[in-house]
Every structure is written in structure tokens, then in C-alpha cells.
Amino acid sequence: MTVPTQRPHSDEAPGFGPYGIDHLLSDARGELDRVDPRTAAELQRNGALLIDIRPQSNRLTEGEIPGALTVERIVLEWRLDPSSPHRLDGLRVDQPVILVCNEGYASSLAAAQARELGLGRATDLIGGFRAWRAAGLPVIEGGHAAVG
């Protein structure tokens, strides 16, 4: 049996895996209909679920989007899996779900996974929370407890 060896890391190597993060991010975004902050706000008014996956320290410092659910990234897939006993209450597979991180990178990866779990209308916010705030959209004091 031959055991594959890991390539040595160098400045010239694109990454240790077969893809690298830029490739993973590009693949994830290729499956999404990403939305800008104003579109996200309109979708939220029309019933879309905004889910903030930022760490509590960011939410405390920068604030939160009114009406957004906070779900820690570490449990996100269990909360978004429609077949999981730990899914969010009221989660529907046909409901638009918009994931929000700081700047729109982690949320792209999370939204792609949400689609793989069966949430076909999952996407993310271009530019993340910081773009929302820069667009002058409502922000409230942060630090609310995440969904358990």
C-alpha cells in the first residue's frame, strides 16, 4: 500500500490541498446568487432569513443587523440541515436564507454548504456585515446570544 505524501509547503505552492482556498471560494460563489446589502434588506422585509455567523467579539464591537438570527459557525450545519433534529425552528427548504459574516468570505463557503444540505435558496451578503453598515442600513447594539 502506498501512502500519499503531502507536498512540502513553499511560497510557490498554491496550498496543501488539491485546490486551495481561492478555488474553494470560487466554486462556492459559482453556485450562489449573492446579494448586495440593499437587496438583502429588501429580501429580509419579504421573509428571507438573515443569519449572522460572525464571532461574538465582532458582534459586540460592531453591532448586529436587526432581525437577523445569530448562529455560531461551529453549529451552523446542524441548524441548517432540514432533516436534523437540531435545525432552526420554522426553517423551510423554500425560504431564502442569507448568510452574513464580516466581509463576505466565510459566508460564501457557509451558503454553499447550506445549499448542499437542501436549502436551495441559500446565499450570502456581498461584503458581509461591514458592507451592510457602510450602506447606511440599520445596525443595533451587538452581543445578543446566539441560537443554542
Task: Describe the structure in brief.
The chain is of the alpha/beta class and 148 residues long. Helices cover 33% and strands 9% of the residues. The chain is built from six helices and four strands.
Task: Give an overview in words.
- By secondary structure, this protein is α/β, with parallel strands linked by helices.
- The chain has helices at residues 21-30, 37-45, 56-62, 76-80, 106-116, 128-134, and strands at 49-52, 69-70, 97-100, 122-124.
- Strands 2-1-3-4 form a four-stranded parallel beta sheet.
- Helix 1 (21-30) crosses helix 5 (106-116).
- The longest helix is centred in the C-terminal third of the chain and has 11 residues, at 106-116.
CA radius of gyration: 17 Å
How many individual β-strands?
4
Order of helices and strands: HHEHEHEHEH
Which parts are unreliable, with pLDDT below 50 for 5 consecutive residues or more? 1-10
Biggest sheet character? 4 strands, parallel
> Quick one: overall form?
globular
Q: Overall pLDDT, averaged?
A: 90
Number of helices: 6
